[in-house]
Amino acid sequence: MKLDVCIGDPVDFTIDWKERVRTRIPFICVANDKRAGGDWETGVAGYEERLCRRSTLSATLSIPGPGSQFDSNYPIPSEGGIYSEFVVVFRGPHDQYKKLDQWYDLPVVSMPPVRWPKLSQTSLKYAFPIERTLVKNKIRSALRICAYYGHRSVVIGDYGLGNGHRNPPQELAELWREVFLYDPDIRGRFDHVAFVFEDAYQSTTMLILEDIAKKNKHGQSSGSKGKSKSAASLGSRSTRDLPAPTDFEIFQHVFSAGEVHQTVNRPDPRYDISMLTS
């Protein structure tokens, strides 16, 4: 399986890729779990909303597929997603929404991510195993939908990242890698995967650290004045001065050939002899 981490607009990347290889490639898109396209008509700047303004995604999501037993696709179940086989793109990216001379279509898998999960302040990981499992199951569901419809390549944007969702980038990247490499329903089902980041400088890690610093400063304001100033200053310095990697850099590292090779060759603790005999 080939794994790429790139910079660009994920939908444009998918369209260009399809034109080169002459094979339909799905795009896994963040989704609002309550209504089709979220608040795309009100100017909200999430990627799903912006895609709805340049395509037929909202209309497609609003209409259940042929043979559906339901009169609405919403709300989307916690581990569910929606497969839109033919989403027609007729405008360019959100900077201008320029009308395209040629229209394109692509499959879109709409999957709601976990929003603002509770995190451990010491390790920037999911605080609750049940929430981590939910994120992993959402990833599995999105990829299983792609595999069910016969796709062997897939494009993934900054799913679950950014200010709107704030999942821990390192652990999220490792979850994607874990599913691709080890999940029995996914392993071997894909030939080529591309993670495409629209903003090369987006750092969800920095957003999380800044939020932690603000909470620490607020919490310590009720303590002694001297301690509060000292701790707040320390928290502010540590957040500002320590370089936080971008989401793109984290995914680049996690999916580098060396890291993938090391992960594959690392002994799985679940099958250690002590675990089997205990």
UniProtKB/TrEMBL annotation:
<feature type="region of interest" description="Disordered">
    <location>
        <begin position="217"/>
        <end position="243"/>
    </location>
</feature>
<protein>
    <recommendedName>
        <fullName>Microbial-type PARG catalytic domain-containing protein</fullName>
    </recommendedName>
</protein>
<dbReference type="InterPro" id="IPR019261">
    <property type="entry name" value="PARG_cat_microbial"/>
</dbReference>
<feature type="domain" description="Microbial-type PARG catalytic">
    <location>
        <begin position="23"/>
        <end position="91"/>
    </location>
</feature>
<feature type="compositionally biased region" description="Low complexity">
    <location>
        <begin position="219"/>
        <end position="237"/>
    </location>
</feature>
<dbReference type="Pfam" id="PF10021">
    <property type="entry name" value="PARG_cat_microb"/>
</dbReference>
<dbReference type="InterPro" id="IPR043472">
    <property type="entry name" value="Macro_dom-like"/>
</dbReference>
